[in-house]
Amino acid sequence: MPDSTQINAANGKYLALTPKPTERLLSYRIGNLQGIGSRARQEDSFTVMNSMDVTAIKEKGFFFSVCDGMGGMKDGKLASETAIASLRQSFAAMDRSRDLSAQLVESAYTASEKVEELIGGDGGSTLIACILFEGKLYYVSVGDSFLFLYRNKELVMLNAEHTLLHDREIEAIEDGDVNPLQFEGLPEATALTGFLGMIGLDKTDSTVKPITLHNGDVLMACSDGVGGVLSEEEIKQSLELSDVNHMCFDLEQKVIAHHRPHQDNFTAVVVQCIR
Amino acid sequence: MALTECANGHLYDSAQYASCPYCNGGVNRVEFSSPDSGIGKTVGASSVVNQSYPGEIGATVAPASYQAASKPAEEEDIGKTVAVMKKDMDLEPVVGWIVCIEGSERGKDYKVLAKNNTVGRGEGNDIVIKKDSTISRQSHARIAYDVKHNTFHLIPGEGTNGLYLNDNPVYVPTPMNAFDLIEMGESKFLFIPFCGEKFTWQNGLQ
Q: Is residue A139 within 8 Å of residue A220, measured between CB atoms?
């Protein structure tokens, strides 16, 4: 059992202990990578905030985000840049004494409205946005980008995608049908059913309660140019490396080595948690 | 290596690059004039990015059925709702509405179905009031319709920012009537029953 939790005998629930005064706060080592792939334009955008400022991380938290502008629709880059700019502004203005999960979800809807205003619903962007505050992770996700957590030699994808395929599978499971193979070859399987800038966007995936981070955890937010190209095993091997810059370099080399004829823009932000 | 965070939040090695390599090359920068204006101003190579492009293989796209310009979203929703009602008629037909008359979603209506409807800000609720951050995410309150007696009750939930019916605090399930005023967080709603003396789903129009 991790040392930060204990069992409360009264109700059997796990309770987080308050950190001991001597315990050092988590620090973060951060890296990013981006490539254009075989596309004519770079439509992914990303950002990090407070990465260089330990005091700001302590007082306001660390923020990072990856947005994948939708190609094939109007102006993917404008959409993803607009979303990032809006999210940066929202993060700076958040009230740290109130529920950050809710504020982060609100910031996603605000960004979506700004993208919609600018592009008129005819295009948009996916979103992964994360806040690390007081050793905890808060995230929000829209669309088909990826947020991975590497912990104890295991890789877990934290967010749920908003694609036609995924929606159909959920519907089937809710109807009591658990055959996941029936939707193979579904037309438009990867089409997005939720994205920033969508008229009537009504879904996000987010942390209801924040996730407590441990020493040695690695987080990676990435566009599908990384998450949809590399296998989980390949990603895991990269995130097992000791240094965050090596991780980024290794991921980038692996994407390039796949030699996809239609390699999408690829972007990732990697954060290593160290006590 | 001299790691630097540029103004747009990209990390790069300033020993290797004179300026941020991720920002260069006609990349747009979007600035907002004030937190509430919502108007995005683009700076940079807008002549390049303001065209629309044909689809690329493997590109991130919306389903073909999603069309922004011709407003099919509303029509589709109507079709969907009807289909669900037909299928589930016995279970959850609409029995009333609440209408936001004050607050950030003023002018919007919300369906009350024939069940115990949770009201909250989160998407998992039956009635979702997304934009009022003072309303609890999950189950701020509940609006229950009793099929047997054809009555409505307002039931307190997890909300910490108040629940009032006609200006009285609600601590226990309280019966509701037409045009009762519900206050939650910073929003006010009027309750409009559809089922009542004149109509019920069991007995039809009286």
A: no
State the average pLDDT for chain B. Answer: 73
φ/ψ (deg, to 5) at A137? -100, 130
- DSSP state at residue B198: S
The continuous run of DSSP H or E covering A235 comes out as helix A232-239
Assigned CATH class of A25-274: alpha beta
Q: Where are the domains of chain A?
A: 25-274
Q: Give the nearest partner residue to B10 out of A32, A71, A114, using CB atoms.
A: A32
Please answer yes or no on whether A71 and B69 come within 8 Å at the CB atom: no
Q: Is the ipTM of this complex over 0.90?
A: no
Q: How confident is the model at residue B124 (pLDDT cuts 50, 70, 90)?
A: confident
Residue owning tokens 């991720």: B22
Compute φ and ψ for B46, nearest 5 degrees.
-70, -25
Domain that holds residue B90: 76-205
List, for residues B79-114, the tens digit of each pLDDT value. Answer: 222 223 334 455 578 999 999 999 999 999 999 998
Measured CA to CA, the distance from residue B154 to residue A261 in angstroms comes to 59
Cβ distance A75 to B137 less than 8 Å, yes or no, reads no
- pTM for this prediction: 0.61
